[in-house]
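[SOLVED] Need 3D model of a two-part complex

Original post:
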Amino acid sequence: MSEHTEHSVLGKRIPGIDSHEKVSGVAKFTADMVLPNMLYGKILRSPHAHAEIVSIDVSKAEALPGVKCVLTGKDTLGKKQGIWRRFPELCDEEILCRTKVRYIGDPVAAVAAVDEDTAAEALKLIKVEYKILPAVFDPKEAIREDAPQIHNGVEMNINVNRHIEWGDVDEAFQRCDHVREDYFYCDSQAHACMETHCAISSFGYDGKLTIWASSQSPYYVQVLLAGMLDMREGDIRVIKPYVGGGFGGKLSLDAAEFCSALLSQRLYRPVKIVFTREEEFSATKRRTPMYYALKLGATKDGKILAKEARVITEGGAYTSMGATALYLTGFFSSFPYKIPNYRYDGFRVYTNTEPTSAMRGFGAPQAVFAGESQLDMMAHDLGIDPMEMRKINGMTPNYTVPGQAQIQSCGLPECLTAMNKFLKKRDKLPPNHGIGVASYGFMSGGIFNWIDTPYAFSAAIVKINVDGKVDLFTGATDSGQGANTTLTMICAEELGVKMDDIRLHIGDTALCPVDLGNWGSRTTLMNGNAVKLAAADAKRQLLEFASYKLKPNIVYDLNIKNCFVHFTDRPERGISYYDVVRDAIRGKEGNTIIGRGHYTPHGKGMVSPAYSFGVQAVEVEVDTETGQVHLVEVTTAHESGTVVNPIGLEGQLEGAFHMAAGYALMEDMQMKDGKLQANNFRDYKLLLAPDMPKTNILEIDTFEQEGPFGAKEAGEGLTNPTAGAIANAVYNAVGVRITTLPITPEKVLKALEEKKQKKHEAAMEARVESPAV
Amino acid sequence: MPRIINLMVNGEKCQVIVEPAESLLDVLRVKLNKTGTKKGCNEGDCGACTVIMNGRPVNACLVLAFEADNADILTIEGLADNAQLHPLQESFIKYGGLQCGFCTPGMIMIAKALLDRNPNPTEEEIRKAIAGNVCRCTGYVKIVQSISEAAKLIRGEAAHE
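Solution:
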């Protein structure tokens, strides 16, 4: 069911409501802000991967002219924090280390000075005596009995384990005609936001703290900071100016936020900390590297009967949101297929490396790379077209993932059909070209409350003023993905007013109702629902007054569209929205009209209230001389329920491909003894403008009952299919299967060499066996 | 030793006392409060700080303030003519050539430098021109389109809205 035609705002190509400020240099990011009497902070970080802090001497640093304060772990309350607040053992990050450092980059001291140069100079004068401890970097080594213990009391360094199971897996494998076991490795990836982490804290003589932070969740910053500083939540106000990218990297309470707050609390002056690009790469959070062992069993006609995934993930030094990635990779490893028998065992292991956490796709890109590669391998073994195999096993609407999730809308069958049609139209490919396909599904927000909040997951307030101007307040976060525009559009649609009638208030914990932030693709569905409900509440109040005027027969309904209050069935009969607002306010003794809305999913399974689906085909050309994989063209068949804003949707799709193709081919966070090798944009390669291929989008129409106006996730899920599609394309181009990411020219060349060698050996054997020929 | 330098920034005369190691970027952002120009890496790798100096695009983080003495600088703040946005700004808005907006000022300035010397660039020429400017959000598709549409506006082949 589609309701596109009835919309007056949704579905239109509406430019971002904040674009004017952004193109003119007016938009203020945290890094741009200066407060009167402000100081600048810098953080001293551990040069060792694992060491005890024996002593810290800050006297020389304190004596440097211009230095106002130097703080170490001893100056904190000694608390540990983490996003998984329901589980105290997973709140493992002190931020300013007191006795031990666990990765190269762990903060040990913070300085506030009159300017950044002085603060940086002071860092050099701090003397830290370390006792170096044996370190461990590979999770497979870290789980060995004799491995160094990174956190006290954590046996074998196992931070979290997750088990998911349904059906009878062992029995089902017995019934399969063919079973494959394969191993994959997925590398890490940097969020590489253009704006590095930064914060300005201002602690006042009234004992209250205001912090401006480049964050994806002002609420998380507020509650976690309150815990760390032992302050009342309401005495901390978090303001989020424009944020220069997040992608999952700005969810945790970070050192810029915590250290600036601590310094400001000491000095009663604003303190600003901006991470350098090197800190951004080496001392924030990153995508979780994963070792994947997959077992897949199918009948000879391509029906999957059983799947088993065993996964070890590199946790790095702390939990952060990595525990969620461990769960989601296990869940999405079964996607987007109807697998009747499934088992997942995942272990997140502490290592002495930069912590790993959420990043766009949140564990799913790893699962989909491994799963979609193996699916093609299985199809090849069985002699079945991989697209056919996806069709046979693909999810359909109203499918239940046993014990886990209820899929409602699902456009996967239509996406597969559209892709098949597209692929059939392609001419024969030139030599060394190949097209690879991968399917995916992704959630529209998680039904997770590990932060343990009593608030609704999303909430909104709509206030209507006498001139008809609407103030929309919501705690949602726009970090560049377009939430500002999306939510304003949803509000305008529901209330029946123009975009210009709405003024959005967002990203301020003192003004906006709580929202958990932008992660797990929650904003459009969860916050969108809250906004829609708040607008509907306000509209109901307006319509009460319109009823007095229009005096409809009780069987008629009233509605508002294009600022006109009218009979739903006779849209030409009615009165102006602006007149109704004035009447309504007068009728309410001058009170403004306030509508409230909140949303928390109930009865929607364990994972998400809705899922979106898609299929991607990537054409590559492999240079057999250099091993280089060139992207030729990408085509994505995709559904996200009702499209709120086509410009935003396309932008998400194109941007997701950029990030995911970089993940597949070149973005590499190699470490040497725990030290990141590429900590700048010169060494850390990502796709640049000339590297991007032609992009085609095949939009599939679906409608999600649970979503606002039928809308659901768009943008994060699209990072999932790309690595698998590229791996399959490389195989189809030159016949080599790369099972570890990134697919570098070195790996491709080596595989080509091995293939040649094998062919040669086979030929030799054939000659030996038949000497007469 | 600190020294006084003279700059013409967006047509306005400025006199600034600068340290020998100070970059043009810090002078613009900190001393002149022109924060439209962004600091993305401070080592010349990302292009977020692109400004036009004496008619040529530069990474302001790599230019020493001393070197910019007597230079004519155009930043993002100087691009619009009061209420009238520059065609590049109009196009970036209309075609969605931005998301988070942090790379946008640098991207628009490098595009301005391109269109100044080549009013009719091919798509390939546009991609090459912005190859030193990193965008983490858009995948460049709509940026390239925005620049191409702006070129049409400037050439008079398309109408302003």
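Edit: The mean pLDDT of chain B is 97.
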